[in-house]
Amino acid sequence: MQFTAAQISFLINGKIEGNAEAVVTSFGKIEEAEQHQLTFFANPKYEEFLYTTHASIVILSEGYELKHAVRPTLIRVPDAYSAFALLLSKYEEVARQQLKGIEQPSYLAPTVTLGTDVYIGAFSYLGNHVKVGNNTKIYPNTYIGNNVKIGSNCIIHPGVKIYHDCVLGNNVIIHAGTVIGGDGFGFAPQADGSFKKVPQIGNVVIEDQVEIGANTTIDRATIGSTFIKAGAKLDNLIQVAHNVEVGNSTVIAAQAGISGSTKIGNHVMIGGQAGIVGHISIADGSKINAQSGVSKSLKSPNTAVTGSPAYDYTSALRSQAVFRNLPEMERRIQELEELVRQLVAERVNSL
Amino acid sequence: MQFTAAQISFLINGKIEGNAEAVVTSFGKIEEAEQHQLTFFANPKYEEFLYTTHASIVILSEGYELKHAVRPTLIRVPDAYSAFALLLSKYEEVARQQLKGIEQPSYLAPTVTLGTDVYIGAFSYLGNHVKVGNNTKIYPNTYIGNNVKIGSNCIIHPGVKIYHDCVLGNNVIIHAGTVIGGDGFGFAPQADGSFKKVPQIGNVVIEDQVEIGANTTIDRATIGSTFIKAGAKLDNLIQVAHNVEVGNSTVIAAQAGISGSTKIGNHVMIGGQAGIVGHISIADGSKINAQSGVSKSLKSPNTAVTGSPAYDYTSALRSQAVFRNLPEMERRIQELEELVRQLVAERVNSL
Amino acid sequence: MQFTAAQISFLINGKIEGNAEAVVTSFGKIEEAEQHQLTFFANPKYEEFLYTTHASIVILSEGYELKHAVRPTLIRVPDAYSAFALLLSKYEEVARQQLKGIEQPSYLAPTVTLGTDVYIGAFSYLGNHVKVGNNTKIYPNTYIGNNVKIGSNCIIHPGVKIYHDCVLGNNVIIHAGTVIGGDGFGFAPQADGSFKKVPQIGNVVIEDQVEIGANTTIDRATIGSTFIKAGAKLDNLIQVAHNVEVGNSTVIAAQAGISGSTKIGNHVMIGGQAGIVGHISIADGSKINAQSGVSKSLKSPNTAVTGSPAYDYTSALRSQAVFRNLPEMERRIQELEELVRQLVAERVNSL
C-alpha cells in the first residue's frame, strides 16, 4: 500500500506544508526513518532529527515553529502522536481486512458455524459445533476444541490452543502459543502418597475487548468458569489458574501468576512476575508491584503493595531501605551493647 | 450424551428421591446450574442454593435432612462429592474413548508403530520409528520427533512438541503447548568472550502417571536422561533444566524453575514461582514455599523452607515479621544511642 | 549410523588401545553406557566406572595410567571431553544435513524464496515474501509470517511462531514453541478507565549465532526494532518486551523477564527468574543474580547485583545474612532498652 501526503492529511484532518504528492509506503521512527517512510515529531528531545530525518513525510504539531527549512513534507495537526497512532490503527485494520477465506489444508468439523468475512489459516483445526463470529481472523496452526464459541472481530494468532467449551466475546485478541482452557491443577492426595486427578469440567469465559499475550496459560474451572472480564489486558507468559476471576479493565504484566479461585477486582494493575495465592480477593483499583507475593486479600480499594510477602507500598519501601543498612545496624547494636555493658559494670563498681 | 436420574443413581449406587426420569446433559455448580444439569450439594455454606437451584438432579449425602421440598430429583449417597467426581471421571473417560482413528491430513513416517484404539489428530507429525501404545490419544497440531516412545492410555494435548528419542510411560497426560526434550542450556565460554554450544544428546524420560501442564518446558539431558518419575504432577509454565530428576509423586506448581542437574526427591511440594539452583539435592518430603529461591541442598527430609535465599520456614516467617518493623527498629536504636550518649556524657562529667 | 574405533580415532586424531574394529552406534555416560556406545572418561570422580562400564569405546586422556586391564577399546587424546564434544557436534551436524526438501502438506506462499538444502517440515506455514537462506532447517508445525527473513544455517524447531516482518541472521537456533514478534504490551488509558491498544508496528531483529530456548516470547517494537544482538543465548520461558535491546554474547537464564525499552549491554549474565524494569540500561559485563529485581540502571561495567530490589552483590549477601538474625536482633534491642531504662531510672534516683 502507498499513500500521498494529500491522502494522509485528509485522513487526519491536517494541513500540508511542502510537496502534497510525496509518497510513503511504511512507518518509521524519526531518527531511523528512510525515504518513503512516514514519521512524527512530538518529543522536543528528538528535535535535531526533524532537520536530518530521511522520512518523506513528518506529522507535527500546529504550534511548533521551524528553526529552518526541512526536507520532508510536513503535516500539521493539533496532536502529532495521536494522529500518528490513528494512522497505525487504520493501517493495521486495512491489512487485517484483506485476510479472508479458508486456507487449505485446514480441518473444520461439519458442524462448525462461520460468520461473514472470517479468515481461517492453513493447518487450523476447528472441532465439533465451533462457532466463529463475523470478521474474526484465525491464523494458521491454531486448535479450537469442540463447542468453543468465538465472537466477532476477534484475532486468534498462530498456534493458539483453545480447549473444548470455552467462550470468547467480541473484539478479543489472543497472541501466539497461548493456551486457553487447559485442565486446572487439581489432584486429591491418596492414602499411599500418590495423587488422583480431579476432573476439570468447567470452562474459560473471556469477555469483550480482552487482549492476551503470547504463551500465556488460562486454566479451565473445575466446575463453572474461569473469567477474564471485559477490557482486561494480559501480557505474555502469565499463569491464570482454575476458577480465577480477572476483573474489568485489569492489566497484568508478563510472567505474573494467579493461583486458583482468587478474584481480582476491576482496574487492578499487577506487575511482572508478581504472584498471588489462591482463594483470596483483590479489591478494585489495587496496584501490585512487580515480583510481589500477595498472600492475603487486599480489602481496601486503590491501595498499592510490594514485597514478598507483599504489604503497603510506602512502608515496604522504607523497610527495604533499612534492609540495605542491616550490617551497619547490627554494628550499632554491638557498640551500644558494649557501652551499656561498661555503664552497668561501672554502676556495679560504684555501689 | 444424556442420562436419566435412574441411570446415574445406578452408576453411583444411590437412592432416588423424586422423578427417576429427570434428564441431564451436563454438569454445573449448585449456585449456577441450569435445567438439565447435574450438580451436588456437600458444603453447608451452599445450603440455600439447594432450595433455589435450577439443576435437574442434585447428588447429596444420605444424612442431610431437607428443610422443605425441593424441585430437583435427589440422589442420596454416602459421600456426595466423591460420587460427583466419579461421574465426572467416567464422563471424561467415555468422551475420550470416542476419539479414535487417524484424522487427515496428518504425517506419519512409514516406520511409526501404533497400538490399538489410538487417536491421531489432524496436522500431527510422527517421525521415524515413533511408537505409540494402546488407547493413547494424540490431539491435533502435535509434533513427535524420531524414535519417541509413548506408552498406553496417554493423552497428548494439542500443540505439544516432543523432541527425538524421548520416552513416555503409561497414563501420562501432557497439556497443550508443552515442549519435552528441547536442548539443555549448555554453552562453553570461549577465549574471545563468545559461547560455543555444547551438544545436548541425552533425552527426557517421563514415567507412568505423570501429568504435565500447559506451556511447560523440560529440557533433554546433555548426556543420559532428564527424569520425571512416576506419579509426579507438574503445573503450567514450569522450567525443568537438563539432567534434572523429579522424584515420585512430587508436585510442582506453576512457573517454578529447576536448574540443571538438581535432584528433587519423592513427595516434594514446590510452590509457584519458586526457583531451585543447579547441582543440588532436595530431600524427600521437602516443602518449598511459593517464590522461594533455594540455593543449597535440603538434606533433612520433610522440612519446609521459604524466602529467597530460602531457609527454615518458621524462622523465615519470624524474620519477615520483623522486616516490616525495620524502620521502627531503626528509630529505637537511634533513641538508645541518644540515651546512652547522655549517660556516657554524664558519667564523664561526674568524674 | 555406526562407526569403528579406527574411524573415530581418525576423526579426533587419537591413539587406539585395544580392538580397532569395535563398533559404536550411539553415545552414553560412562556410568550408564551400554554395549555399542561411545563414552569418555575425564573426571577422576568417575574412575571406578572406567573399569566396569559396558561401553564399547572410551575416550580418555593421554596421561591417565590404567590401574588394570579394561574391557572397552580406548582412544587416547590430549583432552578427552573436548574430543567427545567434537564428536557430538559432528554427529548432530551429519544428522541435520540429512534433513532436506519440503515435506507435504506444507503451505508456502508463491512469493516465498528458499535457498539451497533447505528443509521445510510438514504443516509449516510460510507467508508472502518470506526468504529462507541456504541450509536452514524449519521443523514441522511452524508459522513464519509475511516478509520474514531468515538467514543461512538456521534451525527453527517445531511449533515456533514468527510474526510478520521479523529478521533473523545466520546460524540462529530457535527452540520449539517460542514466539518472535508478538505485539508489545502497549495500551493507552482512556478517560473511562478502559485501555486502547497502541499499534505495534515495529519488528524483532535477531542477529547471527543467537540461540533462543523453548516457549520464550520476544515482542516486536512499537516502532523500530527489538534487538537480540549477535551471539546472545536465551534460555526457555523468557520474556523480552518491546523495544528491548539484548547485547552481544549476553546470556539469559530461564524465566527471566525484561521490560520495555531496556537496553542490556554486551557479555551480561542474567540469572533465572530475574526481572528488569523498563527504560533502564544495564552496563556491559553486569552479572544479575537469579530472582533479582533490577529497578535502576547499572552504570558501571562488570558489577554484580542481587536481591529485589537488586543492589551490590556482596553488600546484599551481608544484609541477607543479618536478615536471618532479625528476631534475635530485636530481642537484643529489647534487652538494651531494659538496661538503659534501669540506668536512666537510677540516674534519676541518684539525683
The oligomeric state is homotrimer
Q: Count helical runs of chain A.
A: 5
Biggest interface pair, counts: A-B, 60 and 61 residues
Distance between the termini of chain A: 99 Å
| Unreliable parts of chain A | none
The first-level CATH class name of the largest domain in chain A: Mainly Beta
Q: What's the main sheet of chain A like?
A: 12 strands, mixed
The helix-and-strand class of chain A reads alpha/beta
Helix content of chain A: 10-25%
The general outline of chain A is: flat
* Residue-averaged pLDDT of chain A: 95
* CATH T-level topology of the largest domain in chain A: UDP N-Acetylglucosamine Acyltransferase, domain 1
CATH superfamily of the largest domain in chain A: Hexapeptide repeat proteins
- The domain tally of chain A reads 3
